[in-house]
Design a protein that fits this description.
Chain A: Pfam families: BPD_transp_1, OppC_N. The structure holds two protein chains of two kinds. By secondary structure, chain A is mainly α. Chain A has twelve helices and no strands. Chain A has a single domain, classed as MetI-like fold, CATH 1.10.3720.10. Chain B has 26 helices and 24 strands. In chain B, the strands form four sheets. In chain B, strands 6-7-8-3-9-10-12-11 form an eight-stranded mixed beta sheet, with helices on both faces. An eight-stranded mixed beta sheet of chain B has the order 18-19-20-15-21-22-24-23, with helices on both faces. In chain B, strands 2-1-4-5 form a four-stranded antiparallel beta sheet, covered by helices on one side. In chain B, helix 6 packs across helix 8 and helix 19 runs parallel beside helix 20. The longest helix of chain B has 18 residues. The chains are: A mainly alpha, B alpha/beta.
């Protein structure tokens, strides 16, 4: 065979390709860049510490969640109660840690769920266009104009007996629309890519093209979006809980703790400061990671060295 | 080594101050520091040249050879992070080290630049006139406003914009690409610069527009007497346009000299390879192209010795030890950086002597006469009109884009049909209509006897096996998230190829297209453009199709790589008995690969016929103009040709002219009497066979004419 003209040239001699394109692959280089960005490292560290604290904290504390110290109501932090006690004699440290657990779980689940829904709806609408697009976008627009906070506030008390998983579903149901619109736009442009055309012309069914070529090639957008959704989910969850619509007693979340503490923030600051501080720190950390991810994945936003 | 370049030189048109070069670059080095751990990129390593008044210097090289970077350095347009050493002198004044403010005073007034992309060169929010006026005023702040406007209008007239005074107020989006490039040239010559640097000024344009722009550049040079530095990869443009040529490879000049010397007495194997790998429009005989094996070296990890040595078929051990200097090898300051240049000169070697020429077998089916072979694809009167809609809520139709308007052709077994035309003529729409296998708006498409739109889902799926496609852009035709193995296996898996044999088949395919089977476990980003295109071809061949649709498969590749891919396509066709529908705008490539050619203009085929007959003696005025506009990489031939330069741009397919669509630009139409013109205005010409054979032209007054 005489066509081995390029066989001798292994790809390592491949012109002036960007060094990122080397064997490490795209994700490798993204990870490297992330780890070189101080704010991302800070965000990751904060989240890691908080997660460990949230699950390990209650175990090492001498107090159980739900256990009440009837000798101490509203006591300031002491060696016995690290972060003090609240109105009913609960240990604030344990309660806050349990609330943090719930907030982290709800934030993550809602983000993943809403991004997943957004990816599917957006990709199908953008790929098929026509009637599918019109119906799906009609639903999306409808969801967008509904006052989500009000509806959640009305619906949740009715469904509260089903447990907090229903709450996760409801929250996700009101968070996916903007992402879905973005995904739709990207799908329309990805659809014209030649590898998608090639797959179509070799007879690959549409749904396979969507899952094999379109969604994986949007993964950077989806990951960034999911990260940003984590913080908005946490905020919506806490604000709902703050108003008493979200997580219901005996469950606690950061929101319900803040709502209790807020009333006595001046007189008994420990019931308010710790949970609020943790919430601010958590959302800040998630946003820092999201920011860093977007910079690492989007070559346009890379600053010149 | 630099003196030899600057002392002697090509034709100096003006004797005035011909003694000293206007722009002189000496031992220029440009290094981009690597970020993080990545090594530095040494983009330019020791470039020296000088251009005099009225001289045109061509800089040729493949992408990444440092040709643009060296000129950007001269303009002071490189980012601050670049390390630049050496010397850049304009009229003897050192430019290197000047701050941005001092450079700005010289940029535009004494040294100007024309960029490649006319679409992004103009600000969309200002009128073109204001942008030219700005260029004038910035260097002549005292000039009166009326004077500036007057000068801008003069410049617009000079670069050939009709109704310059009215068009002064037009916005860039109202101009076509060619017109915008004219405006860019007007801006460049606004202040009578001494040097104009043109960075691939015609690469983004169609050939007929390219011919216009080259004319404008010649006019501009006549008017200003400036020296022009012409950066291009097109050896045809260089042959006809420049006085001296500098060939760059891996950041260094490897051969410099007057254009005839370099083209006819080539002394450097790389230049030979470049010249040998260009398909020639003017050669009837089909000779395989000379591919240069391998890829250009990475500028961040250069091998010791001659950077071309790893790809050079006549490299010796000495070549790998030290990098050769440019040494004089012939008359008129012809220098080459090759240890064996003397030997090459003595033996009179040409590209075919130096490079092993692959043999290309003849397709077995080609032995049969055309009429007896099976028809693979038949397209009859295919129509694709896009509606133009207006309004947000209630859409109403305000017009129709006649993308494809009655196209008919057929392809038989083992045949290659080249579908050519300028951008916007409907080539790609035709392809998409054929590949979609949907029922066309009107007309009939039948593949292997089965008609599109009349098949059931299962039959349609099975027809997909027989028609596969290779796309233009090797960057976007492979899914970047998939391994090469999965990419090639995708069609096989889709069509339920037995899983056990999958790996063997993928390896066989990789081998078939000349890649190492072990590359299957890599990602597409790890490959160069030519290799990716080979992967694309392997994917298309996986299902053993009968017809391969090639949508500009080589237009995104460098010439030396392009030659390898074209040879591969030639060989595959012969070995596998494939038929090709080859869409391209590069007629030289089509002449090389196609058996028959169809020329499209505004959604219609204007001429179709057997390749040698059609290229030898085209009978439609458009084909003649198209062929005549293509520069041939042969300086003497190119200088002696007269180009038919078409007026104006391609009309919008939404509003085609009545009768013959080519009428408004047709050079023949102008020579006709009023009565004869009547037919062109009234009736649209049909494809009529001309004389014998199966050549047919859609022109009322078709007449064969030799143009190449």
């Amino acid at each position: 065979m005489s066509m081995s003209t390029e066989r001798a040239a292994a790809p390592e001699a491949g012109g002036q390709r960007a060094p990122e394109a080397r064997a490490t692959g795209r994700w490798g280089s993204v990870l490297l860049q992330l780890l070189r960005t101080p704010r991302v490292v800070f965000g990751l560290a904060v989240i890691a510490v908080m997660t460990v604290m949230a699950w390990v904290g209650p175990m090492i504390s001498p107090w159980e969640f739900g256990e009440r110290d009837y000798a101490n109501f509203l006591q300031p932090p002491s060696p016995e109660h690290w972060w003090g006690t609240d109105n009913t004699g609960r240990d604030v440290f344990v309660a806050t840690m349990v609330g943090l657990q719930k907030s982290i779980i709800i934030g993550l689940l809602v983000a993943v769920l809403s991004t997943f829904v957004a990816a599917i709806v957006g990709a199908f609408a953008g790929y098929f266009l026509g009637v599918t697009d019109r119906v799906l976008m009609w639903i999306t627009d409808l969801m967008l104009v509904l006052p989500s906070f009000l509806i959640l506030a009305i619906l949740y008390p009715i469904l509260r007996n089903q447990g907090w998983m229903v709450f996760v579903g409801l929250l996700a149901a009101f968070l996916w629309m903007v992402t879905a619109k973005m995904v739709r736009g990207m799908t329309i442009s990805l659809k014209e890519r030649e590898y998608v055309l090639a797959a179509r012309f070799m007879g690959v069914p549409a749904w396979k093209i969507i899952f094999r070529h379109i969604i994986p090639n949007m993964s950077s957008l989806l990951i960034v979006d999911a990260t940003i959704n984590v913080s908005s989910a946490i905020i919506v969850e806490t604000s709902l809980s703050y108003f008493g619509f979200g997580v219901q007693p005996p469950d606690v979340s950061l929101g319900s703790l803040i709502s209790v503490g807020a009333r006595q923030a001046v007189t008994h600051p420990w019931t308010f400061l710790f949970c609020t501080g943790l919430l601010v720190l958590l959302v800040l950390a998630v946003n820092l990671i999201g920011d860093g991810l977007r910079d690492a994945l989007d070559p346009q936003s890379k600053r010149r060295s | 080594m630099t003196e030899t370049i600057t002392e002697t030189g090509g034709a100096v048109n003006e004797a005035g101050d011909g003694a000293t070069p206007v722009l002189e670059i000496e031992d220029l080095h440009v290094t981009f520091p690597g970020r993080g751990k990545s090594p530095d990129v040494r983009a330019v390593r020791g470039v020296s040249y000088g251009v005099r008044r009225g001289e045109i210097l061509g800089i040729v090289g493949e992408s990444g050879s440092g040709k643009s970077v060296s000129s950007m350095a001269a303009m002071g347009l490189l980012p601050d992070s670049a390390r630049i050493t050496g010397s850049i002198r304009l009229h003897g004044e050192e430019l290197l080290g000047l701050d941005d403010k001092a450079m700005s005073a010289r940029r535009g007034s004494r040294i100007a630049m024309v960029f490649q992309d006319p679409l992004s060169g103009l600000t969309p929010v200002y009128t073109v006139g204001d942008q030219i006026a700005e260029a004038i005023r910035v260097h002549n702040p005292k000039m009166a406003k009326e004077e500036v406007v007057q000068r801008a209008v003069e410049l617009l007239e000079l670069v050939g914009i009709p109704n310059a005074r009215q068009r002064y107020r037009a916005f860039p989006h109202e101009f076509s690409g060619g017109m915008r490039q004219r405006v860019m040239i007007a801006i460049a010559i606004a202040n009578d610069p001494d040097v104009i640097i043109c960075d691939e000024p015609t690469t983004a344009l169609d050939v007929t527009i390219q011919a216009q722009i080259l004319e404008v550049l010649k006019t501009a040079q006549r008017e200003t007497g400036a020296a022009i530095v012409m950066i291009t990869h097109d050896l045809g443009v260089v042959a006809g346009f420049v006085d001296r040529v500098l060939v760059m490879y891996a950041g260094r000049p490897v051969e410099v000299g007057p254009v005839d010397e370099v083209y006819y007495r080539t002394r450097m194997p790389y230049t030979m390879g470049l010249l040998g790998s260009v398909p020639r429009l003017d050669l009837e005989e089909k000779v395989p192209l000379v591919p240069i094996k391998g890829n250009p070296p990475s500028l961040s990890a250069l091998p010791p010795g001659c950077p071309f040595a790893p790809r050079c078929p006549i490299a010796r051990d000495a070549c790998r030890e030290a990098e050769p200097e440019l040494v004089p090898v012939g008359a008129d300051g012809h220098t080459a950086a090759c240890l064996r240049s003397a030997e090459i000169g003595e033996q009179g070697w040409t590209a075919t002597d130096v490079y092993p020429v692959p043999e290309v077998a003849e397709a077995p089916a080609a032995a049969l006469p055309r009429a007896e072979r099976e028809t693979v694809l038949q397209v009859e009167d295919l129509v694709k009109h896009h509606p133009l809609m207006k309004g947000a809520v209630f859409k109403r139709r305000v017009g129709t884009v006649y993308a494809v308007d009655g196209v008919s052709f057929d392809i038989v077994e083992g045949e290659t049909l080249g579908l050519v035309g300028e951008s916007g003529c409907g080539k790609s729409s035709t392809l998409m209509e054929i590949l979609s296998l949907d029922r066309p708006q009107s007309g009939r498409v039948s593949l292997l006897g089965r008609t599109s739109g009349a098949m059931g889902a299962r039959e349609r799926f099975s027809v997909r096996r027989d028609v596969q496609v290779v796309f233009q852009d090797p960057m976007s035709s492979l899914d970047p998230r998939m391994l090469v193995f999965d990419i090639i296996a995708e069609p096989l898996r889709t069509h339920r190829y037995p899983g056990k044999k999958l790996r063997a088949r993928v390896e066989e395919l990789l081998d078939l297209v000349g890649l190492d089977p072990s590359h299957a476990s890599r990602y597409p980003t790890e490959f160069s453009g030519g290799q990716r295109q080979r992967i694309g071809i392997a994917r298309a061949l996986a299902l053993e199709p009968k017809l391969l649709v090639l949508d500009e498969p080589v237009s995104a590749l460098d010439v030396s790589i392009q030659a390898g891919v074209i040879n591969l396509l030639d060989e595959l066709k012969a070995r596998l008995g494939l038929s090709y529908l080859f869409v391209a705008h590069d007629l030289s490539v089509v002449r090389h690969i196609a058996d028959r050619v169809a020329v499209m203009y505004l959604g219609k085929i204007v001429e179709i016929g057997e390749v040698d007959a059609l290229f030898g003696a085209p009978s439609h005025p458009y084909t003649q103009a198209l062929l005549s506009a293509i520069p041939i990489p042969d300086p003497e031939k190119e200088r002696s040709r007269t180009h038919i330069v078409l007026e104006g741009d391609l009309p919008s397919p939404a509003n085609p002219p009545s009768g013959c669509r080519f009428r408004p630009r047709c050079p023949k139409f102008l020579t006709l009497t009023e009565e004869e013109q009547h037919a062109c205005v009234e009736t649209s010409p049909q494809l009529e066979p001309t004389e014998q054979d199966d050549q047919a032209a859609a022109c009322h007054y078709a007449e064969k004419r030799v143009v190449v």
